[in-house]
Each structure stands twice: as structure tokens, then as C-alpha cells.
Amino acid sequence: MPRLENAALSVSELNRRARQALEQDLGEVWVEGELSGVSRPGSGHIYFTLKDDRAQLRCALFRPRVRFVAAPLRDGDRVKVRGQVSLFEPRGDYQLIVEAVQAAGEGELLAAFERLKARLAVEGVFANARPLPYPPRHLLVLTSPTGAAIRDVLAVLAARWPLTQVTLIPVPVQGREAAPALISALGLLNRQPALDPAHDAILITRGGGSLEDLWAFNDEHLARAIFHSRLPVMSAVGHEVDVTLADFAADMRAPTPSAAAEQLVPDRHERRHRLERLAERLIRAQRARLETEAQRLDHLRARLRHPGEVLAARRRQLAELEGRLRRAMQARLDGEQRREQHLRQRLVLRSPGRLVEQAEQRLTRARGRLHQAMPRELAHHRERLGGLVRELQAVSPLAVLGRGYAILEDEQGQVIRRASEVVPGQALEARLGEGRLALRVRESDGE
């Protein structure tokens, strides 16, 4: 039924109903696309557009949810976002209120990256840590000739240390051809006789990008080629948050191409200022040294005396030293004589004849004690042995046999303890106190 003119909705009411309809019908959804127009106003919220080749969608990521997004959002990144479809009523803008963001396909790539990283680490591919020459005389740069990375590197080198010679080795840094091209270039640069002794180091670099853009630098064969490089290698791939296997395999890593150039060479202005400060310190030190030596020369002039006075003083000193030497020698001789006399007295007390005489006296006394102790000890042991013999005879089986008992044994020598162990006609042997008897069983009462 057509609506009456006076019953028309206000713009705000229509937008409110549209927002409610969108939120109730669509609810929470996942959307994948490319980031564009990322902005971060002072409020702390993040606004961006998610687009594909045919459409685009405004998105808002409010500040409470920003801290849960690990990676920075950059234009051109392909992401998947989860959010609530809604409408911004004041402007009537259809938008997505974002709750979560993750890189599209990043989970699978990161898993593959971690598996390969763990395997190469176990193999020792990340063990390189050779120092790079500082500064290098001739630097070989492997990168795209048209990228921003080479411009940044050359600009920093020219500003800081223009003495370093740079040779660009143009290679692709993205796509399927990148890794094979980098490996081939490394092999060529490290092959004799192509290995020029003037070449100091290799820099592998490129600018930032998504995980997919940088994936060529996670190639296993490229990491091995960097590890086996005879020239030291620095890797500077992507931004500060980007890490690749090439970074781990290299001898050094820099977070960005510009940072790599800053690490490779010193700042010539700083060196110039340092040289100027050192020159000033040297001039001050020379001036102070000259002033000190001048004062020392004046002091030595004041102390300078006639050679005759010096010789007379030396003669007096020599005479004093001669007297001290004589007194010291006499004191030493007196001490040695006293020591000799003391040693002679000790030698008399410890003479070998006297020691032998004392030892013979101790031996005589010990021999007398031994002669007295031996008969007593023999009698004691003889008496103890007799007791043991009597105890042994009391428990000996032979003593039992001597009292008229006998031991029956079968043909195998086993002792017969019960009548049930024999059968009629069985041959037995009886062991008596003296001698043995051969027997044969006539009958047995054993059960």
C-alpha cells in the first residue's frame, strides 16, 4: 500500500532501520581483499578500504581492538577481516566494523616458514657470524635496479662514505624467478677466478612488502647458498618487522636497506669531526708536553753542578758503601761461624755410632720381650686348638658312627633316610664307624 506523504520517514530513521536490517540479516562475516587508504587519526581508530577488482568496502577498526592486531596494516596488503556489517547513520555510509585482521594465506605460509626454519637451524645453516669489513672497499649489491632499496642504499653510502665502490648485480626480488636468480648471482660472485680479492662483502636487499612478496627470500636453496658464500653476506629484506630465512643465514642482518648502508660504513662527517677533535687534542697535548719539558729543562739546569763536586760526592758515597760492605761481610762471617759451631754440636749428638748403639739397646730389649712372649702365646694357641678339636669330635658324623650307627647309601651315593626310598632287591652300601658293608634289600616296610 503506498505510503502517505505526511507519513514519510526521516533520513535518520531510514538510516537507523537500514543499519538494524544490515546487522540483523548479515551479522558477523569474514571478508578478504586488498587494503587501501589506511589512515590512523589521533583518536586511535584505524580506517581503511577493503577492495577487490570490482568493488570496495569501507572498514573501521576501533581503538579497543587495534591492540589485538599483530601486524601493521599497510596499503596493498591482502588481508582477511572479521567484522559486523553496519551503517554509519550520520553520513549513510555502508561499512564493516572490524573485530579481527589476519594476512590472507599467512597461516599456511608462516607454518611452512617455521618448519623450514627449524630444519635449517638443526643443520647449522644459520651458524654464520663472520664480521664484515668496516668499511668495505668494494660492495656487491644484489637487488632490483629499479627498486627503492638500491636508491636508499646508494643515497646513504654517498652521504656517509663515498669512498666505498658499489657494484649493482641486478636480480628480480619478487616472484618465481627471484630465488633462482639470487642463487645464480651468489654462485657467480663466489666462483674462482671470478672471485675478485678487491670485493669485500655482498649485500642482499629489497624494500618492504607482504609475506607473499618476500617469500622468495625464504627459499631453502637461497639460504644454503648464502651460508656457503665465501664472501660475507649482509641481508636487509623488507621493513623492521619482516624476517626471512635469508636474514638468518646471512652473517649480518639489517632491518631496512637504509639501515644496512648505515651499518656497513661510518659517517664521514662524524669521522671528520672526530679527526678534528683528535687533532685539537694532539695540538693541546704537544703544547702541554713542550711546556712540561721546558720546565723540566729549567729544573735540570738549576740542579746541574760542577763535575768535581759530583766526583767528590761520589767518592764519599763510595767510601760509605765500602764501610757498610765490610761491616756486612764481617757480620755474615760471624753468623756463619756460629751456625757451623751449632751444627757441629748437633752432629755430635746425632752421630751414627751413637744412633747404632741406641738401636742395639732397643733391639736387645725387644728380643727379650719376644722370647718371653712366644712360649705363652704357643701354650695359649695349643690350649685353644685342643678345645676346638674336642668340639669338632663331639659333632662329627664319624663319632656317631663310632657309637654303632650306620649310614645307608644307594648306588649313586645318595643317603637313604626313609624305607619308602628303596625297593626289594635294591643294592645298598652301609657306612660304619670302621669300614663299609654291601647290602641288598629283602623287603621294605615303607609306604
UniProtKB/TrEMBL annotation:
It is an enzyme of class 3 (hydrolase). One of its GO terms (cellular component) is exodeoxyribonuclease VII complex. Residues 275-346 form a coiled coil. The keyword Cell cycle does not apply. Keywords: Coiled coil, Cytoplasm, Exonuclease, Hydrolase, Nuclease. Residues 9-101 form the OB-fold nucleic acid binding domain. It catalyses: Exonucleolytic cleavage in either 5'- to 3'- or 3'- to 5'-direction to yield nucleoside 5'-phosphates. GO terms for biological process: DNA catabolic process. One of its GO terms (molecular function) is nucleic acid binding. Its main location: cytoplasm. Its EC number is 3.1.11.6. Residues 128-438 form the Exonuclease VII large subunit C-terminal domain. It is found in: Cytoplasm. It comes from the Bacteria. Heterooligomer composed of large and small subunits. Bidirectionally degrades single-stranded DNA into large acid-insoluble oligonucleotides, which are then degraded further into small acid-soluble oligonucleotides. Belongs to the XseA family. This is Exodeoxyribonuclease 7 large subunit. It comes from Halomonas lysinitropha. The gene is xseA.
